Amino acid sequence: MKKHVAVLMGGLSAEREVSLMGGRAAVKALEARGYRVTTIDADRDLCRKLGEAQPDVVYNALHGPYGEDGTVQGMLEILGIPYSHSGVLASALAIDKAMAKRVLVAAGIRCPESIMTTIDCLRDGVSMDPPYVVKPNREGSSVGVTIVKCNDDRLPLWNDWPYGPDVMVERYVEGRELTVSVLGGAGSGDRALGVTEIKPRQPFFDYHAKYTEGQAEHLLPAPLSTETYQRALDDAVTAHQALGCRGVSRADFMLADDDPEALYLLEVNTQPGMTPISLVPEQAAHAGINFGDLVQQLVEDARCDAA
Questions:
Q1: Which of 250, 278, 282, 301 is catalytic?
Q2: Poorest-confidence range of 10-19, 82-91, 110-119, 206-215?
Q3: Orientation of helix 88-95 relative to helix 97-106, angle to 10°
Q4: Which CATH architecture has domain 92-111+174-300?
Q5: Structural domain 4-84, CATH architecture
Q6: Rounded distance between C-alpha atoms, residue 113 and residue 65, angstroms
Q7: Residue 24 annotated as catalytic
């Protein structure tokens, strides 16, 4: 008999709707493969819901705070329920942009220079010349990200900021946006699936562009030199391993226009999007892995780190 899988979806973050889309796709794929599936909307009553469902394994389709930051992972460790994607430490590290960058730079990966500040200090000015990018320190999917260009007449007003006090101000890299998915497997090692160049139909590949069909062109494989293509693959695997990721991750890069050899890693996503138009399923298909097989592998490789 196939395992009983609880698919955690929805949640409390700004990425709730994307989580619901990815969760529904996973449910459909797992049911087609004969798994018994229980869907759980991960609210503050999640522990009780899991206790009632008694699943063999959890497929984590959550994004953002609580679902992607080690919080849910820690609860599943305590409950002893194996779960997909990264564990507590990797999840907590990767979602914290400042801490993740320290780990990545120490691993020899080039990242854009940045400073940490608070949203209150940001209102008084920034000690970095534009262009730069302002990012919430603990969000994903480009939520809250703002680009400040050299010729902007006025800076954004940082009022009603809902993403926490800590922000990263990062040098803006003008160039080509690339992304690489890394798939891990018990006993099979970590494997980069391909490099995609993303060409949004608007100036910035924001939350709307990421999850609205037709808002970005995906070039797979990315039209790069052999050397640059391989470097992106290698850096993505190095980042995946340095942070301690498992299951699947996605590394986002910029290739600078002013230096075609300058590849910068922006961040690593431990809970990358898994909607029908998301990048990970697309790269998996390019590597010969259909969506159902991808989800099944994540379920079969699920585990507790503390077990």
A1: 250
A2: 206-215
A3: 100
A4: 2-Layer Sandwich (3.30)
A5: 3-Layer(aba) Sandwich (3.40)
A6: 25
A7: no
